[in-house]
Amino acid sequence: MEQRQIYIGTSGWHYKHWVGNFYPAGLKSKDFTNFYLRFFRTVEINNSFYKLPTSETFANWRTAVHDDFVFAVKASRFITHMKKLKDPQESIKRFFENVNALEEKLGPILFQLPPGWTVNEERLAAFLAVLPPYYRYTFEFRQPSWYTPAILDLLRKYNAAFCIYELEYHLSPLEVTADFVYVRLHGPAAKYAGNYSESTLQWWANKRIEWQQQGMDVYVYFDNDQLGYAAFNAQHLQQLVQEQISPKT
Predict the structure, then answer these.
(1) 9 in Cβ contact with 234 (< 8 Å)
(2) Confidence class of residue 72 from pLDDT cuts 50, 70 and 90?
């Protein structure tokens, strides 16, 4: 069986406040990408949540990275927060017109639902039914009322991943509903802040190896961007995973 992949990176990478911690002091923003590529082969694009980049921007990102690099893309808040998945045909069409410029480097599409929106199985079912079937999708449910067997079964029907995430001391269920696993770590305490401990990272490393051995690709993105912790935690998690895959002899 083909070896399944483990992708570890950060949610976003174009952070000026990383200069002087993860990025060397004095590094220009135009050089952030090349420096990031020294350590990672994936990133989650999150500015697409606020404003959809042009197809030219996506194409430029595609040509700027290595052949084995993968971009996960966070879908527009217009789709998830303003429309709440309603009447998705036109917005989905426009989204993919731009995102498809990533071509073979396009990874999973993330739909992060609003924290104040309670479960709506019918709306999610209608949305999943119109999504193009040849992409990977993951759904981050910020409202626990979505944690139901019916929702999980619906995701399984369409091979869409339940996004496993940690945010403000809340760890979502560790549900697997697709042939891949998608994890977002927003920080061990406050939103987008804090440094994950050695023991916690080791626990996540063990889970990633377990999922890989079960035949699933695994994507994990750190979102605790304060002081560059996301990049440092992602680097260390990569190291822990590699040590398990290739143990010292």
Answers:
(1) yes
(2) very high
Please state the pTM of the whole predicted model: 0.96
The token duo for 17 is: 């406040």
Instruction: Give the C-alpha separation, 26 to 29, whole Å.
Output: 9
* Residue tagged 């403000």 (tokens): 168
Q: How far apart are CA 145 and CA 231, in angstroms?
A: 32
Give the CA dihedral 100, 18, 187, 176, nearest 10 degrees.
30
Task: List, in order, residues 6 or more apart from 142 with CB less than 8 Å away.
Answer: 112, 113, 114, 115, 167
Cα gap 210→197, rounded to integer Å? 20
pLDDT confidence tier of residue 2, bands split at 50, 70 and 90 = low
Burial of 13 (0-12, 13-18, 19+ CB in 10 A): buried
Contact criterion met (CB below 8 Å) for 244 and 212:
no
Query: In whole angstroms, what is the distance from residue 161 CA to residue 110 CA?
Result: 9
